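ingest -> validate -> predict -> emit
validate: passed (alphabet ok, no gaps, 181 aa)
predict: started
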Amino acid sequence: MSTPESAVTGAHGLVQVNYHKYDGTLHWNLRMHRLGEDEHGVWLGLPPNGVMRKGHNPDITIAEAHVLLFPRDAWWTAVFNAAPRSTEIYCDITTPPQWPSPDEVTMVDLDLDVLRKRDAPQPLLVDEDEFAEHQVRFGYPPDVIASARASAQWLMDAVARGTGPFGGAHRPWLAMVDPAV
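emit:
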């Protein structure tokens, strides 16, 4: 496991995180603290009782701290939640995250999610019905569908085996936003 190192620029600054749907509408969005980078990508964190929003709706308070990993050139993002949240790992299948500036990251949520509950050894693939519906409604191109499915399969395997960032790489980053970890 590597030791977290702060990013050279924007270390510990706030980053606006914007997930959009394929039609461009704003989906989940929040501001998170830049923690740093490692071989897995860029890590952002939110301490306990942080807030996020769905679209332009009111803020939702998240009781537990969490960190969010933005891998380089991959079709997913991963959230690692502190206990006692029942979902330990939640991966969104997305277009590769884009950084229009050092303080903003954006991607398109492609509906499929891979998650692992804290008390379950195996991950789950969820929202396949939404993925099928949105392929028709938004007209996902064949390459987007193929990339989303391939990423979901890769994540199911990696989370189940605990490889890559799913082997505990998140722990030192999570400790930066929640010393109780």
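The CA atoms of residues 15 and 103 lie 4 Å apart.
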